[in-house]
Amino acid sequence: MRHFFLLILGSLLGISSVRAQIIIEGHVTDEKDQPLAGVTILIRGTKIGTVTQPDGHFRLPTTEELPLGISLSFIGYRRQDVAVRGGNFRSLSIKLVEETIVTREVIVAASRVPEDIQKASVTVEKLGVRQFQESPAASPFDALQNVKGVDLLTQSLTFKSVNMRGFGANNNNRFLQLNDGMDNRSPGLGFGFGTIAGIPDLDIESIEVIPGASSALYGPDALQGLMLTTSKNPFTYEGLSAQVKVGVNNVGKDGFGPKGYSDMAIRYARQLGNRFAIKLNFQRLSGTDFIADDYNDRSTRARTGFFATDTRRGDVATGIGYAPNNDPNTNLQYDGVNTYGDDINAGGAYKFSDTYANASLQGKLATRTGYTELGVIGNNGKVVNNRANVALHYKLSGNVEASLGWYYGNGNLIRTAGFREYFPDYHRHQFKAEIKGDNFLLRAYTTQQRAEGWNIGQTAVAINNSWKSLDQWATEFGQVYIENKVSAGLARSEADRGRYLPGSGVFNTVRDLFANTFNTDTVPGYKGAKGNRFRDNSSLWHYEGMYNFAGFQDVMDVIVGGSIRRYVLNTGGTAIPLQEDGSEYTINEYGAYLQVTKDVKINSTVSLKPTVAIRYDKNQYFDGGFTPRAAVVLSTGSHNFRASWQSAFRNPSPGQLFSVPTAGKGGEVGGSSLAIGSIGLAKSPVYRDSDVTDFIAGRITEAQLLSRAYNPATFTTEKIKTWEVGYKALIQNKLFVDAFFFHSNYKDFIAAQSFYQSNTGKVSDFESSTYRTLQINFNNTNEVFVNGGGIGLEYGLGRGFTLSGNFAYQVGTVTLRDAQGVVIKDNAGNDIVKRKMSNPEVAQKGRNFFNSPESRYNITLGNYRLTDRLGATITYRWTDRTWIEQGTTAGDVWLPAWTSLDAQVSYRMPSFKSVVKVGGTNVLNKYYAQGYGLAQIGGLYYVSITFDELFR
């Protein structure tokens, strides 16, 4: 890596231009001859550009040879291409035409080269400066919630996960997030950190989103799509920009809200001479997080009799039969969703024996008293996020530009995996070196992070147990409890006498001991008790290159590229186990791709653009594989029809590959032979919980159960194939239509499922409940299908008003198969073939983790120019109810449908180069959660003032 950076630096210092420089000058106005300031001007096919001054004038130095073309773009106006020749390059006079519907966007994510978004071969969405300014969302990243088919799962005010096309996850490792071409994911934990360590808001030029399989050009893990966030080039966007935003959230929270927050950002970019430019960015957000305060009794299949069943049909599930009792005074098993230490399946419950002295408790389960999330963390919900970057850019010969960049992210956050986990002080650095020309790219970057967190639920259990053991607590509870006479609440009160209270000195001392002691070490003063802290200080080293043989042999465009990647894990055994020799694991990957495109002009109005791409990738722990893609676009006039077949795959994350549960605390098990062997499962097999249930009920034989034992030798990559058709058109310059339909088929789908292991090694002992439960990552033998589609419409109403909306749906179905490929039957004896995963007859046989709403839509009415200075937008969002299957302690539940009304009003002050914006999301303050156990999201209201490109 060091040699690569030296090579880049040498290129910066040693390559010079031999071309003569010219200066293109001109003046830009609107249709009323009023000067336009801030118009972006780029030399077509290059990154060379500038922005107009307050009087509409611009100067653009370049070494490009005449004639050439320039492209002008400005919010609210139609993009215009202008030819520059020897006779006009010093005195261009250009008028821009106002446009309410933006359709002529240029994208790069779909094919890795610039192209018209309407003629892209796959579904792609783009958000630019105009969309960011018009959106009521508080940040560019949050504006994604208005893109059709995008599901944002909000875990924290600063941490949101992007999900598309089913299998929603709080930590989506099937969706690739790239910031200026760099992978946003945590190297060890394996999921994207979104805005926690993203590009500062003022420096974001655009966000492009491609839903669906994208491995053909982007390699592993772009299984459900990718998001490319691009920052502003300092040659094009010069000057000083600043933003001050203040707001309030947690409104209407009794005894807690409202709470204020602030978001301050500054950006400075300057071109020094003709070749060198620099930019600096810093952003800081501080406030109070949205609070996870769902205290309803948990809905989870760990409950006895969770599914309602039809006994006449072999106990086939008909729905959820467990009736939650939200009153801990009357519910022996009360387990609040966001209370911790009372979890029925994670160390917070006591099972009384069938011969217990107190007959009213025989065979029953009782939960301890839990602590709230705010009580355990003890920071009153305070959240902070810092982001920064510094970049140096240097123009080499022709259109070649070299750059060096540093990107930094820091803050605290809560994420949800199997448990809620708190990261009090996350740090990440990314360093990038890049040389880019019109037809080639060389890039190298590294990710270095320090991520230490602790498990909130396990810490609450530890606090309870450090005060009083579970056995002692249960004894005191049992001595008091008398059914129908002394309630569970009174018995708990008696058993809880002297309990450590949140905020007290002893509570904080015990919490800090367990939270600050790694889970590999013994907590001081607590013999045998391990801590709850884990770390991921892993790093990633990535190298890639690409060359575009544009017009190869005057026949076709050919792109070739490749990449090498190395993960160096550093968790000290706290998140991922060490190797047998005590060293950390490393993971090496490499890949190469080829894409061929031909643009065929059939006549003056009809063209055909076929594209074929293929990529080969190899991970050191798995066999290599190819991921091809074929697509075609038929354009006739303003109508563009597309069709594609795509494939993709995903390597298991390091945790899914290697992890083992912490002794005495449970957790997930990696699917590899290394993980399985390290905890003795090779000698004592494990079986899926649904198979064991069927065996106990007599629906399968012992021989059938034995044949379904987990086999780690079969653990492999996850794969998908997708067929898709789409249509884009601008009709009569008033109606923009964008529609698509897709069908996806997953193979070797990876998910953590509950497996049972007999304590004696005999499967006959499952009937006596002598077994332990493990969550093991494995490849499902099921056939998984997702069908979906969507449509977006935007209509120009006249006088600057636009009415837009989008609708998207996705339906997940599954054919369940056992380890031998035989179709599994439901309890009524019917084959489970292509049934919805939310069907209780299917869910009864095990979790499938589709976790996505079937339908959602957005409707927006906006006018960027109500007057010369005033603009406004109002958006209504609706998301369907969702069947959730989540984690060790989360549960199984129908998450209710939710709605949000968002609005903003903006006022431009051209003389100050500033915009004042007043806005809010969920302005009606109807609290909802986007996942089970996640934060409850209420209204977020803000006022911001943005000063843009001062001192140019």
Q: Can you walk through the features of this model?
A:
InterPro entries: Beta-barrel_TonB, Beta-barrel_TonB_sf, CarboxyPept-like_regulatory, Plug_dom, Plug_dom_sf, TonB-dep_rcpt-like. Its main location: membrane. This is TonB-dependent receptor. One of its GO terms (molecular function) is siderophore uptake transmembrane transporter activity. It is a multi-pass membrane protein. The relative contact order is 0.12. Helix 5 crosses helix 8 and helix 6 crosses helix 7. The protein has 952 residues and is mainly beta. The chain is built from 13 helices and 53 strands. It is globular. The protein has a domain of 75 residues: Immunoglobulin-like (Sandwich), CATH 2.60.40.1120. The N terminus is likely disordered. Helices cover 10% and strands 45% of the residues. It has a 22-stranded antiparallel β-barrel.
Q: Main traits of this protein?
A:
mainly beta; 10% helix; 952 residues; five-stranded mixed sheet; Immunoglobulin-like; 53 strands
Under CATH, the homologous superfamily of the domain at 21-95 reads Carboxypeptidase-like, regulatory domain
- Number of DSSP strand runs: 53
User: Which structural class fits the helix and strand makeup?
Assistant: mainly beta
How much helix, percentage-wise, in residues? Answer: 10-25%
Shape: globular
Return residue spans where pLDDT drops below 50 for at least 5 consecutive residues: 1-18
Largest sheet: 22 strands, antiparallel, barrel
Radius of gyration: 29 Å
**Taking all residues together, what is the mean pLDDT?**
88
Strand content: 35-45%
Distance between the termini: 37 Å
Please count the helical segments: 13
CATH architecture classification name of the domain at 21-95:
Sandwich
The CATH first-level class of the domain at 21-95 comes to Mainly Beta
Under CATH, the topology of the domain at 21-95 can be stated as Immunoglobulin-like
Family: Belongs to the TonB-dependent receptor family.
Domain TonB-dependent receptor plug: 118-225
GO molecular function: siderophore uptake transmembrane transporter activity
Domain TonB-dependent receptor-like beta-barrel: 431-922
